Description:
alpha+beta
Amino acid sequence: MTIEMLEFSQFEAGYIISQKELEATVGYRYADNPEYFEYYRADVYRLVQQALDKIVPHLNLKVYPALDFKGFVVLDPQNLTPEDLKLYHEQRNDLLRIQARQDIKRSEL
């Protein structure tokens, strides 16, 4: 995971980490193994949010699972409409559930 993975998207009004970049770093396509790709995505989500909180805490940037692809968007939630924020939070909550299941599995090992 490097900063080069971030690209600005006018469509998303923020930065994105594309599905293609995630697939390149994990070594397989989402379509080839959706379950494990989601586990990987949950790990990346946590790492990106921790990095943002540490590097630029004053910018209030948050990472959210993208709505239209299996990547992420990085943006300031204050710039979102309540409807958009709700959609992003629903996606994030789904990923957090995957993350929690994954943490439980890891603790059992």
